[in-house]
Amino acid sequence: MINGMRLAYTDDGPRDAPALVFSHSLFFSSRMFHHQVAYFSDRYRVICYDHRGQGASDRAPREELDMDTLNDDAAGLLEHLDLGPAHFAGNSMGGFIALRLAARRPELLASVAVLGSSAEAEGKIAEFDPLAAAMTEHGTGPVIDTLMWIMLGDETLAAPRCAAQNAEWPEWMLNLDRGIGDCAYQVIHRKPVLGNWLDAPFRCSPSVASRTTRTRSGTRARSSRRSRTAIWRWCRVPATRCP
Q: Which residues contact 226 (CB under 8 A, 6 or more apart)?
């Protein structure tokens, strides 16, 4: 039991190797990192876990699915497995957890990678709230096309090289229980942490690259400015501040 929950996780690689922890996106599970596990587990102890309310982990009521509670889960898992200081990589929702860990429990971390995530509050609450409500009431079936577009985007969905994952994840999402709507609600209504990690002992290094925006019309605009979809990497350094 970790923070009152049974959290499902996989543990691969040498037990005496540096620890690398992956934290998954909303609607997915630790399975989303299976390629990374295969790549890194010869030289890292690789931990992939399911957030409470998702995957094979225990379910919880909406009020216990907020990002701060999930941050406590992640910290508890690192302590339970005696992993710290560990490298921690979070994608999207997992990035919200990574940001909180960097700010609040830096002693548990060797480095942090935040992918496709943000330290800000959600800017499209009015747009996403009806989606969360629909999933809570009806499940994911009626909105599966919207979910796939949001999570993967037109380009990935149309790419032949992505055919396997484009077949796997719709089936996974169609089988999510209605509690996923509560998980989505808490992601949408997360508190910002932009100011919280400015005093964390990490040096920030944003990766800036052009990106393709998702559109339903097929038109794609490219941008080279830093955005919420940028990859942010933190390396632990003594007595410093993020810029």
A: 206, 208
